[in-house]
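pls design
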């Protein structure tokens, strides 16, 4: 576990906690690291919600499928970030979404219930810090979800696409950036038809609003 401490220490859940205390706490919680292959399912919708994940390396996508099997990408998880923590904190019995590795990844699984009764030294102080950190993480995830709702609430494919690209440019503080999705995945994230979205990207290029090549975009400032 020690070899992962650098990335673990950067996770918002453990902010303000000494590394020795983090290690002792993880041992007490019996946290474990798993290695996954590309497209491997980590959590499946409907299975018991027992763990939250901490992505150490690679990437993970949170996915929801409707009754007919239509897929929607809810979120993209980056190294050092938690996932399924809001589900565990809410006390849900079953996973309402699935989590899948989008490339070879290393993931730490943490039992949420053990986290709340860990036996590390100075337990009360550490637990108070953990709960405070977790509250902030959940609040930040709620803000991200609100941004996603703002995007998918747009009426047209063009509006959804531009709202997403503008949000990414603001987040990266750059007019040129690369998104973590290919065309089908972007359509799944926006909740639109891939062909209609690709046609809209072509129109935005023709109108001089964007430049794009595969997953790389550049906003030209002619909105």
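designed seq:
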């Amino acid at each position: 576990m020690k070899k992962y401490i650098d990335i673990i220490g950067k996770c918002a859940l453990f902010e303000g906690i000494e590394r020795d205390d983090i290690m002792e706490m993880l041992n007490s919680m019996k946290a474990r690291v798993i290695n996954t292959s590309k497209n491997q399912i980590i959590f499946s919708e409907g299975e018991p919600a027992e763990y939250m994940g901490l992505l150490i390396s690679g990437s993970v996508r949170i996915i929801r499928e409707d009754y007919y099997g239509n897929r929607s990408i809810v979120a993209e998880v980056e190294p050092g970030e938690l996932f399924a923590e809001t589900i565990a904190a809410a006390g849900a019995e079953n996973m309402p979404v699935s989590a899948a590795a989008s490339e070879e990844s290393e993931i730490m699984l943490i039992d949420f219930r053990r986290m709340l009764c860990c036996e590390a030294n100075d337990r009360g102080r550490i637990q108070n810090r953990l709960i405070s950190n977790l509250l902030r993480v959940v609040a930040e995830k709620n803000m991200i979800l609100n941004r996603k709702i703002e995007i998918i609430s747009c009426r047209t494919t063009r509006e959804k696409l531009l709202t997403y690209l503008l949000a990414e440019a603001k987040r990266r503080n750059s007019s040129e950036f690369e998104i973590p999705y290919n065309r089908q995945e972007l359509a799944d994230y926006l909740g639109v038809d891939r062909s209609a979205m690709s046609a809209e990207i072509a129109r935005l290029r023709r109108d001089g609003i964007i430049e794009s090549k595969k997953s790389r975009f550049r906003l030209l400032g002619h909105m």
